[in-house]
Amino acid sequence: MKTAAPPREAMVLTPEHVPIRLFPAGLGARFFALMVDAVIILGLTVLLSSILGVLSGLRMVISFVLAWGYHVYFETRHQGRSIGKRICGLRVVDGRGLPITFQQSFVRNIVRVVDSAPLFYGAGALVSLLDRHARRLGDIAADTLVIEEHEAADPTKAIADARRFNSLQTPRVLRRLRRQVGLEEREFLLELVLRADALEPQARFDLMEEVGAYYRRTLEVEDANLSGENLVRGLLSVLYTDRS
Question: What is the pLDDT of residues 21-46, one digit of tens each?
Fold first, then answer.
């Protein structure tokens, strides 16, 4: 018996035009997250209806508003993660891997009405099976993507791991670093190291070599055996651990 192929990786470009890999979530994880959210929304609807003592017609309106508002709130205010998605390790992002906007969340959740037809997301599930990134109609209309959320990189660990590249800690290089490398460049180097594992190997090598070559010239680094990536990581360590 053939099983459905897993969604393909999505390649997107960061604002720095560097390719980065995203991993679209499969139908199983999305369905479980949806069930968790549906139970929470149902519980909120019953609770609110009992408190207000509303009629059945108004209860339907409350249910719709809660179902729509619940998803929009969590997607725009909690980094694309509803409670169900957080439990399942999923996140909604826009088609470029950036945080989802209110307009995108509005569109993808309004289209839930179509996705849920004819019976509990039948249309959405069918479209997800046919789409190479497992998107439902709402995702396609809003240019969004539900991805697996891999463990976030730890800046402290990234800096600590870079400490072994200590050939940059010479008085001359340290003086130039303090004079020439500002806050924005520090943040850029930290972001680059944090994103490194998600980059394609060739893109990672090329970018690190380019950045490393720039700082090798600017700071007059003499260690010819230091690769571009090790130079970048060494600079990061010096910048964030130098207390003098």
Answer: 788 998 899 999 999 999 999 999 88
